UniProtKB/TrEMBL annotation:
Residue ranges annotated for the FIST C-domain domain, each copy included: 34-180
Protein name per Swiss-Prot or TrEMBL: FIST C-domain domain-containing protein
PANTHER family the record matches: BLR0328 PROTEIN
Listed Pfam families: FIST_C
């Protein structure tokens, strides 16, 4: 069995620290109101929040670990009164955070990368690397909205990256679960997450 999860989002802007949060509500980044910072970055697009937030999710990472992994969090709601953002997953206090933006080609390429990684991870020897597999592909509903007519390119890219003769199935979700290489399972947003199986 193999697994992988890839996002394909471009990170931009400085690294900021989560200085006030509770569960999935983000109140402050570097002691500044989170909604105010988002509005500064988004400019005119900020009037369309939270819908425009699909194009600008947040990357969060634990500064206490050496692992260069990050989680993607999608905006669900904004609260003007508290100047906070509500995300589709927890935002732990003390984590690092950076804004992200959509790059449509990278989103599709990342689906292919997830497929390759999931297949490679389960190859136990040189002979098994080209065995046909069964893949369960779970993509975020937000990605489907973003990609629009290019949605089929994402699913085509995952199948083409699997060994010849492989089969895939899948669905869209509002959150994906997958371990990192460390083995710790995490909730992801806006990713293509794939689990592969093969039988000897």
């Amino acid at each position: 069995m193999g697994h992988a999860s890839q996002g394909g989002w471009d990170i931009f802007g400085p690294v900021r620290r989560v200085t006030r949060s509770k569960a999935n509500a983000l109140y402050e980044l570097d002691y500044k109101p989170a909604l105010q910072l988002y509005k500064e970055y988004l400019g005119e697009k900020s009037v369309d929040l939270p819908a425009s937030g699909l194009l600008y999710p947040l990357s969060i990472s634990d500064p206490s670990t050496d692992e260069r992994t990050h989680l993607v969090r999608t905006i669900l709601h904004v609260d003007e009164q508290t100047q906070s953002l509500i995300f589709a997953g927890d935002i732990p206090l003390g984590f690092n955070a950076q804004l992200m933006r959509a790059n449509f080609d990278r989103l599709i390429d990342s689906a292919s990368e997830a497929s390759l990684l999931a297949s490679k991870e389960m190859s136990v020897d040189e002979n098994s690397k080209d065995f046909p597999v069964f893949a369960i592909c779970i993509s975020c509903f937000g990605r489907r909205l973003l990609l629009g007519e290019r949605t089929e390119e994402e699913t085509d890219s995952t199948l083409k990256s699997l060994p010849q003769g492989s089969t895939q199935t899948g669905f869209y979700s509002y959150g994906e679960l997958s371990p990192f290489t460390s083995g710790k399972c995490e909730l992801h947003n806006q990713t293509m997450t794939i689990t592969t199986f093969y039988e000897r």
